[in-house]
Amino acid sequence: MSVSISKGLVRVGSSLARFVKSPNFSAFDGTKPKIAVIHFTYGGSALSSAQWFTRADVESPVSAHVVIDRDGTIIQCVSFEDRAWHAGKSSWRNRHGKHLSGLNNHSFGIELANWGPLVKTVSGWKSHSGVPIADPVLAEHKNGNPSGAGGDIGWEPYPEAQVNAAAALVRALASTYGVDEIVGHDDIAPTRKWDPGPAFDMAAFRIAVFGGTRGADTDNVLTVSVDEGLNLRNGPGQHFASQTLLPAGTRLRPEQRQGRWLYVTVLKENGSPLSSGWVHEAYVA
């Protein structure tokens, strides 16, 4: 598939991609985005998600630059010259945004039509809306499963045509805008998001886009966000003893989740590990 970008618009071969315009966008503040963020839609067709992005009358209007269907069809919703509202509260390395804008100013949002986590029934794995999914990927999410329960659950697989189209698009973003990092929504918002999830082979995708050995771009951290500091506890609950009080701004790497509690590694200024324990997600960002 030949994908190119000109003046913010996606062209597949010699034709412009279908454009279902979202009103939910704003201008970049002068920052040149260098990150591609991969999402799943948690829904059915790419068109249904693109049409959802046309809604400005919801409590929290959202959008993405493109939605890619399971057959590789690309639908554009926001020009790449504009900022889509896809990231929410998020951070990556030392880049972040104000309030709920997160990494929107630093990134391009790419949605893949996919149901995400599945529900196990007596007749097999199904989406949250009851759509049967054959041959799901069975895995536990690296951030903990959405339900909070441990162990492997089902995830809808990503078809090869869809992944190839996404890789061609991100290569075009790298060529046109200098994108040099690819992350999942679950990388930049690990305490609240699970997309694109364990069914998406991020390491292989990075290599498909950049070549070489670019399989790992993982350097996400959280920080203690309360002035009074935060207790690092021996277990996931307030009844567990506190090891120490972490000062505001302490950098933490999330390792696993249990409910709203996160098992984290405390990082020194040079990024090396100092200690580990549990913190509540409400006090980190």
From TrEMBL:
It comes from the Bacteria. InterPro entries: Amidase/PGRP_sf, Amidase_domain, NAMLAA_amidase_2. Its EC number is 3.5.1.28. It holds the Pfam family Amidase_2. Keywords: Cell wall biogenesis/degradation, Hydrolase. It catalyses: Hydrolyzes the link between N-acetylmuramoyl residues and L-amino acid residues in certain cell-wall glycopeptides. GO terms for biological process: cell wall organization; peptidoglycan catabolic process; peptidoglycan turnover. Residues 20-197 form the N-acetylmuramoyl-L-alanine amidase domain. GO terms for molecular function: N-acetylmuramoyl-L-alanine amidase activity. The keyword Hydrolase applies. This is N-acetylmuramoyl-L-alanine amidase.
